[in-house]
Design brief:
- It is built from 6 helices and no strands.
- By secondary structure, it is mainly α.
- Helix 1 packs antiparallel against helix 4, helix 1 runs parallel beside helix 6 and helix 2 runs antiparallel to helix 6.
């Protein structure tokens, strides 16, 4: 396993890699057609969920100093509501973006210092028990990724797919 510069990320590094695996496994086998289905017009579709996951990855990269722009940002930035009038990117396009940003973010997670993590990062939450720092934003992104993979997993079942299989790719290093 890779070692991070900051011990503060000892639980984040494996979580990030696990989420990378989960993201790919939870999307495995889902058709492009089904990825755009909503349940009773009340849910987001899988493409929106996957795009929001990627928006988190790009936000994480940004806070860690990367300059990469999410090419589909206009669809998903900061949890932008689903708009049925838009033509969303395909799952395949989103997977390509995932493979582009994820190794870059992973490398930055390994390199980031405690000083960088301790910097203030105003989020406007104004919660007394939640210091608005880079480290806490990293944690929020990781939490959001968990949430989105869970939503996609539930959608798999609703759309009559098998549950996610935990067949980890040992060659995926991010």
């Amino acid at each position: 396993m890779d070692t991070s510069t900051s011990k503060k990320l000892d639980i984040i590094i494996p979580a990030f890699r696990g989420h990378s695996q989960n993201f790919l496994m939870v999307l495995d086998g889902i058709s492009e057609e089904n990825a755009l289905k909503r349940i009773e017009g009340r849910t987001n579709h899988i493409v929106w969920m996957a795009g929001n996951f990627l928006d988190m990855r790009y936000a994480l990269g940004f806070i860690l100093g990367l300059k990469e722009e999410f090419e589909f940002k206009d669809f998903f930035f900061q949890g932008k509501a689903l708009d049925e009038n838009l033509k969303y990117p395909t799952l395949q396009q989103l997977k390509e973006s995932f493979h582009k940003i994820s190794p870059l973010v992973y490398q930055r997670l390994l390199e980031v210092t405690d000083e960088e993590l301790d910097k203030a990062f105003p989020m406007g939450m104004n919660i007394d028990f939640f210091p608005e720092t880079v480290l806490n934003f990293v944690g929020m992104c990781i939490g959001r990724e968990d949430y989105l993979c869970g939503q996609i997993g539930l959608m798999r079942k609703i759309l009559n797919y098998e549950g996610m299989k935990y067949e980890f790719d040992k060659d995926l290093k991010y």
